[in-house]
Amino acid sequence: MAVEGVGKSFGDFRVLHCVDLTIHKGEFFSLLGPSGCGKTTLLRIIAGFESPDAGKVTFDGRDILDLPPNKRQANTVFQNYALFPHLSVFENVAFPLRLRRVPKPAVDAKVSEYLKLVQLENHGHKKPNQLSGGQKQRVAIARALINEPRVLLLDEPLSALDAKLRQHMLIELDQIHDKIGITFIYVTHDQQEALSVSDRIAVMNQGDVLQIGTPHDIYESPATDFVARFIGETNLFDAYVVSSIPLDKPEPEFMAELDIQELGKIKVTTVDNLKPGQLVSFTIRPEKILISKEKPATKREDINLFQGLVDEPIYSGFQTKFYVKVRDGVLIRVIKQHAKYSDEGPDILWKDSVFVSWSANDGYIVEVKP
């Protein structure tokens, strides 16, 4: 399916600006962004609950905007479940088939099949108020799938659940997608959810799609400052290019030296042949930075090395996050994973003098600015 040039305004407020997307058949595709970025409006336009001011939505090349929601072969799962409280689980799931006047034997067989798919085969007799939040959401998913739509639209379906249940349901949702193989379009503001299950992600902000890519692409190679900040944690700086030297590699690559006002000079590899004096955005993820009390014994020219004081250590069991104060009081975030028993507690403490270092290959130039 494709979204082409879709725009939408509510009064004077422009919600979507000429959005273009192509979503592949069978893909788990996420629309990711903060509240108010336009992702739910875009989903509602695909579902048929809103009409765009411009553009079109196509399935297999056919514009479906003239079709009502029930004719679009796209069903929606909402965050508030939208179950009928007076009907049993079985009857909630059977409801779309009853509307189509499907014969009872076929209804019974189909509902049983889909209750088994969502692991609720022993709960068909219960009413929604007898279910947990996760079970209610599975009922809603079964009901949305029973008409065998080509596209399942999921609007923040896990937001009402607690953190542990949300993670469990996310795994189940991914397994359901793998079993039935239809296209899922998933709306969320939670970066970790999108990174965990998506084949590709569209990152949105203020009505625009800023980047479309695999979770790896989005995380490792953010296209804008916003994407770098929004996806996970990062250290982000403006910098001026000092020099750029070609590297002897099969693919074009350069070793650039940057000057960061708050930090000093650093090196970073890049595929862009940058010119001295250009203003760029530079990012380095906290988990890619090494931290130690002793100065690293290395003579490699591609290592960036700074000394500072631990301003704040935050121990989280599986990792410790350090805020390290370096030149001019700038803070660098560092994450140290605890992978071994000997790493069970932080050996680096508040106010300790430390060295932070990273390879030129681990930093990334996000944007070349005008």
Q: Overview of this structure, please?
A:
By secondary structure, the protein is an alpha+beta fold. It has two domains: 2-229, 3-Layer(aba) Sandwich (Rossmann fold); 233-369, Beta Barrel (OB fold (Dihydrolipoamide Acetyltransferase, E2P)), CATH 2.40.50. It is 23% helix and 36% strand. It is built from eight helices and 20 strands. It has helices spanning 39-47, 89-99, 104-117, 133-145, 163-180, 191-197, 215-220, 225-230, and strands spanning 2-10, 13-22, 28-32, 54-59, 62-63, 74-77, 151-155, 183-188, 200-205, 208-213, 235-246, 254-260, 264-270, 279-284, 290-292, 303-315, 319-325, 331-337, 353-359, 364-369. Strands 6-7-8-3-9-10 form a six-stranded mixed β-sheet, sandwiched between helices. Strands 13-12-11-14-20 form a five-stranded antiparallel β-sheet. Strands 15-19-16-17-18 form a five-stranded antiparallel β-sheet, with no helix packed on it. Helix 2 packs across helix 3. The chain is elongated. The two termini are 35 Å apart. The mean pLDDT is 92.
